[in-house]
Amino acid sequence: MTYTAPITEQTFVLETVAGIGEIQQLPAYESATPDLVQAILVEAGKLASGVFAPLNRKGDTEGAKWNDGAVTLPAGFADAYRQYVEGGWGSLGADPVYGGQGMPFVLASAVQEQLTSANMAFSLCMMLTQGAIEALGAHASEDQKQEYLTKLISGEWTGTMNLTEPQAGSDVGALRSRAEPHADGSYRITGQKIFITWGEHDVADNIIHLVLARLPDAPGGTKGISLFIVPKILPDGSRNDLRCVSIEHKLGIHASPTCTMSYGDEGNCIGYLVGAENAGMRAMFTMMNHARINVGMQGVSVAERAYQHALAFSKERVQVKRIIEHPDVRRMLMTMKSTTEAIRALGYLNAAAVDRAHGESDTEAKREWQALADLLTPVTKGYATDMGVEMSSLAVQVFGGMGFIEETGAAQHLRDSRIAPIYEGTNGIQALDLVNRKLPQGRWKPLFADIRETIRALPGDGDLGAIKPYLDDGLAALENATVWLVGNHGDGFDDAAAGATPYLRMFGIVAGGWLLAKQALAASERLAAGEGDPAFLKAKIVTARFFAEQIVPQGTALLGPITRGGALLFALDEAQFAA
Amino acid sequence: MTYTAPITEQTFVLETVAGIGEIQQLPAYESATPDLVQAILVEAGKLASGVFAPLNRKGDTEGAKWNDGAVTLPAGFADAYRQYVEGGWGSLGADPVYGGQGMPFVLASAVQEQLTSANMAFSLCMMLTQGAIEALGAHASEDQKQEYLTKLISGEWTGTMNLTEPQAGSDVGALRSRAEPHADGSYRITGQKIFITWGEHDVADNIIHLVLARLPDAPGGTKGISLFIVPKILPDGSRNDLRCVSIEHKLGIHASPTCTMSYGDEGNCIGYLVGAENAGMRAMFTMMNHARINVGMQGVSVAERAYQHALAFSKERVQVKRIIEHPDVRRMLMTMKSTTEAIRALGYLNAAAVDRAHGESDTEAKREWQALADLLTPVTKGYATDMGVEMSSLAVQVFGGMGFIEETGAAQHLRDSRIAPIYEGTNGIQALDLVNRKLPQGRWKPLFADIRETIRALPGDGDLGAIKPYLDDGLAALENATVWLVGNHGDGFDDAAAGATPYLRMFGIVAGGWLLAKQALAASERLAAGEGDPAFLKAKIVTARFFAEQIVPQGTALLGPITRGGALLFALDEAQFAA
C-alpha cells in the first residue's frame, strides 16, 4: 500500500487557513518564499512515499528488537534515517544560529505530517528530537547549545524526553529520580524511567536524554524538579552509565522502541543541569506544548493514510458493484475525508499561531497569537487524536473482512493510532487543560468572533448556504457551553471537569466545521476568479457541506451533556459500579 | 485479570426486560423454572470465570497454529472444551427430541454472554456449532438429524458455516463452489471457502461443515445455491477429501482459527444435501439470523469484560488520587456501564422475542413476536457490536499508557472486538436490512407505542423524571426518521440507504435508553416494595438517567444527518476523493 503526500490539499490549507502568505511577510520567515515552500513539500513527499512508507509494514511485523541493552531496528531504518539527515529535514524549523533553516513551524508540521503518514513509528524518533531541540533552544546555556543543540538540529544525534516513572504517570510531581551535584559542576543521575520513546536504537550515533530528576533537598511535587542533559555517549567519547533495561510489547507503533531506561546503576551516570535548579517543569512544558501539537498532527497523519488506503480498496473491491458505489461506503469515505481535512486545518492553524507568536514584532499581537496557540493546543491534541482512532477504525470497516487480516495493513493504522489519545497527556488531561487553564485566559472570545465572521460571510443559498445554519447552531452551542463552564469553574471544579471531555469534542467539531467553511469560501472565490483546479476546489465546498450537515450536529448535541454537572458521576458509590 | 459473571444484572434483565417469567409460562419452556435459571447462570458463570477466562490471554499470545493441514489450539483448550461438553452446556437451548435441554434461547444467550466475556475467541467454536444446530434442526431430514444433529447438540462434534469465497464476500450470490450428484444419492463437492471460523481444530473428534454450493445447471445468483453437510470424518470413519489450507493472521481472536478450506482437491469430497435443491439461502438465513443476535451479544460480552477490567484498574491506579475519583474517569466508567447494560437489554429482548415467536400458541402473537425479533436483529447486531469496539477502546483509555502495553490485556479486548461489526454481515449491511427489509414490515409501530408507554409511566420529577424529556425527544426523532425513511424508500433507494447507518445508531440508542428506563421503573417499584438489593436497584436508576442525559441526545441529533438524502454522497466524482 503506497502513500501519496496530499500536496494540493496541504498547500491550500497553508494558504487559506494557516496564512502562510502573512507568515512569509514576517522578518523571521522571509526566506520561506512560496516557491521554496512548494519545493519542500514536494521533496519531503518523495522521502515520505519513497523511503519511509515502504518500511511501514516491515517495521510493524519485525518491530524493534532488544538484546542485552542494545536495540535494533529492522533493516532499512538506519539508511532511511541517514537520508533524512542528509536531506537536512531535521533542521527545517530550527534556529539558523545553530544550523537550522528557520522555516515556519507550520511548514515543518506539514512535512512531519507526511513522514508520519508514511511511517508513524519511525517519525516518533524525529518528533522526540524536535522536542529536545525546543527545550534546549529555550533553556540551555550557550555552551550546551554548541555541544548538543547543533548535533540534534543536524540530526546526527537524536533526543528523548524522560518524564514518566513507574509510580508517576500523569502525576509528574511524584517522580523520584535523583541528581547529586558533583565537584566538576556536573551531576550524578540515578533512577528508572519508563515509556521512553526511542530511548535506545541503532539509527544514530548518540542519544541525548533529557531527564527530569530531583536535587537533594529539593521541594516536593513539581516545584522540586530539574532538567538534565544525559548523553548516551559523553563528550569524551566514553559510554555514560545508562542502560535500556527492556522495551515494551505494544498494541502498535512496533518500530518505535518504548524503553525502560535505568540511569546510574553503577553510580556514575553523568548529567548536566539545563537552566536553573528546580525549574525543570517549565522546560518540560516548553517541550510538551509543541509535542502536543505534533501528537495532534499524528491523528491527522494516520487518518490521512488510513483514508488513502480505504479509498484505494473501495475502488477495486467488488461486492455486486465496486464498493465505492455503495452509499454506505461513500458515507464512510466522506466522513473520513471531511474529518481528516478538518483536523488538518485545526493543526495547521495551531502551528501557524505558534509562528505568529514567535515572528510578530508587536507585543500585543504576539500575546494574542500565543494565547490562540495555547487555547487550540489541547483541542488539536485531543480531537485530532480521537479522530485518528475513529477514522482508522472506519477504514478497517471499509475493508470488511480483509480489514481484520493483518496482511492488508488496515489494522496497523488502527493499532498505531491508538496511542495518540494517551501519550503527551491523555485526552482527559487535555480536556481539563482546556477548561481549567485555557478558557479563563479569554482567548476564546476573539476566536468565536472570527467564527461568527465566517458564518456571516456565507451566502444564503447553494452548498455554501447549506453550511450556515449548522455552523450557526454549533457556534451558539459552543458559546453557551463555554459561558457555562467559565461560570461554573469557580463554584464547582467537578461540574466543569465533568463536562470537559464532551466540551473538547464540541470545540474540535465546531472549529473543524468553521475551518472547512473558511476553505469552502476561499475555494468559491478562486473558482469565481478562475484560479486553481476546479475539481479540487468544488470538492472543498462539498466536503465542507458534508461535515456541516453530518458531523457538526453531533457537536451541537453535546451542549446538554456538557452542562449537566458532576453530581450524577458521583451518585454511585464504588461498590455500585460492579453488578 | 479475572472475569466475574454479572449474575444479579443478568437475572434482573431477564426478569424486567426479557419477560423470563412469561416465557416460563409457555408450554415449551415449562421446565425453565426460576430456580433452574438461577442455577444455570451460576454454574455457567463458574465455567466462564474458572475455566474459560484463564485461557483468554494464552489464546491471544499463542494463538491457533497451523501445520500441514492440522490446526492446534494452545494447551488447555481441548480440556476446557471437554468440560463444556460434559456440563451439557452446548445442549442448553436445543430440541429435547435430539438430546437438547429445551431451555429458552434467551437463557442460552445469557450463558453464551458469559462464556464470550471470558474468552471470545473460544466461544466462537460454540457459536458456530449453535448455528449448525439451528440450520439442521430446521432443514435436515430425520436421518440427518439422528446422525449429525444429536452429536452437534451433545457437543461431541462441532459445526461450521461455509459461505464466503475469495470472490464472494457480502455478495453471496457470486459463489462458485460446485456439487455434483453421485449415484448413491450423495454429492461430490469442489471449491474453496475462506474465513471459515473454527474450520479445523483439535478440540473435538469431528467437524460438520455446512457448505453452500451450486448444483450443475443451477440458476445464477442466490437462487441457485444449495446447502450440504460435509463432515470432516465420514460416517464410515474415513477422512473426507477436505483440507484446511491455511489460517489467517488476524488483528484479534487469535485462538479462533480462521480457515481457508479446500473441498474436493482429489475429486472425492462427499456431501449430503440438506433440504431441497436450490433452497440453500433460506437455510443459511435460518443460521444467520440467530448468528446475528449472537454476534450482537459478543459486543455485550466484550464491553462487559473491558468494563470490569477498566473498573478494577481505576480502583487501584493512583494519579494524585485513585483514578476512579477523577470526574473524567468516572465519566468513562459510567459511559461503559450504562452502554453495556443498554446493549445487554437489547440483546436479551431480541432473544426473548425469538422464544415467544417459538413458544406462543396464538398465530397472531407468534407473528408479532417474530416480527419484533426480525426488526431488532440488525439493531442488536449493528449497535451492540459498534459499542463493543467503542467501549473496549474506552477501557484502553482508562488504562492510559498501560492500556497500550499488551501485557495488561486491555488492548486484547479492543483487538478482539473489532471483528464483530464486520462478520455475519457488516454493520452497513445490517443498516440496509433494517431500513429496506425490516421497516416496511411495520413492526416498528407497536414497538414505538411500547416506548411511548414507558415514557408516560415515568414520573415528573426525581431521577426517573429526569429521563423523561430526553427519551421523549429521542423517540420523536426516531419516529420522524422512520417515517421519512419509509416514505423515501420508494422514490430513492440511495436516499434511504444514505441514512441507514446513522438510523441504526439512533434506533439502538433510543431502544437502549428505553430499556434502561424500563429497568429503572422496575427498580423503583422493587425499592418501594422493599424487595431486592437496594444498592443494585438504585444504581439501575442512576445508570438509566446517565444514559438518558448523556447518550440519548447523541441519538436524537442524528435526525438531521439521517434525512439529508443521498445526493451529497455522490456529489464528488471518484477522482475528487483524492487530494
Describe this structure in words.
2 copies of one chain form a homodimer. In chain A, the strands form 3 sheets. In chain A, strands 3, 4, 5, 6, 7, 8, 9 and 10 form an 8-stranded mixed sheet that branches. Chain A has helices spanning 7-16, 20-25, 34-52, 56-62, 77-86, 105-118, 120-139, 142-154, 280-316, 327-359, 363-399, 401-404, 410-417, 427-438, 444-457, 462-491, 493-529, 534-556, 559-562; strands spanning 65-67, 70-72, 157-162, 178-181, 187-197, 206-213, 226-231, 242-247, 258-263, 270-274, 318-319, 321-322. Among the domains of chain A are: 158-279, Beta Barrel (Butyryl-CoA Dehydrogenase, subunit A, domain 2); 430-570, no CATH class. In chain A, helix 17 (493-529) packs antiparallel against helix 18 (534-556). In chain A, strand 1 (65-67) and strand 2 form a beta hairpin. By secondary structure, chain A is of the alpha+beta class. At the A-B interface, helix 9, strand 11, helix 10, helix 11 and helix 12 of A face helix 9, strand 11, helix 10, helix 11 and helix 12 of B. Chains A, B: Its EC number is 1.3.8.-. Chains A, B: This is Acyl-CoA dehydrogenase. Chains A, B: Residues 278-436 form the Acyl-CoA dehydrogenase/oxidase C-terminal domain. Chains A, B: Residues 161-263 form the Acyl-CoA oxidase/dehydrogenase middle domain. Chains A, B: Its cofactor is FAD.
